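Good day; I would like, with your permission, to put a structural problem before you. The record follows directly beneath this note:
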Amino acid sequence: MSRIRWSVPLATLLGVLTLAPVSFAAQPVTQTLTPPPPSFLTCKVVGSGTICQGSRTFAVDPHPDFACGSGAVIYDQGTVRQVVTRYYDTEGNLTRRVIHEFWSDEQKSNPLTGATTPYTQASNITDVPAVPGDLGSATETVTGQASITVPGVGAVLLNAGKTVTVPDGTIEFRAGPQDFLDYFVDGDTSVIDKLCAALGA
């Protein structure tokens, strides 16, 4: 099972518009880091190993998200700012990755009707590998909120609370309303009925 981060898997977030690295004074890193940090991070040596930090902003282009009962496909898009910190041990192996995501200009849309609904989303994602240096062994904890509200209708979709996903993709823990997971993981199509109606689908 693939991991679900609220409504959009991280693999979708590839359309990078701008990268804004965060730099800080540091002792140069001379050892190999596993896995290597992405280029927008700046690393420094500390007593317990190495810390890499940085930020980037990128666009998530319109892409299919939900399929309504009518057959209409609802699209998703937005702009994402990530603030990322990676922690490596003295052997150069990753022990923790923390990602703060802030979405702006987000909307769901129905290309057939031209209708749109804006929404808000902020997430905190923490990955802790069971085997240092191996992100494939990481348990992922996500907290935050994503909500879609339609004027005159109210909230039509809501994700809020916490999820914990183990390395094989199984959701080990979930708390709070999780409409996106109800749809994508549990297959409960009823949770998108109000959104589809609001978008004329």
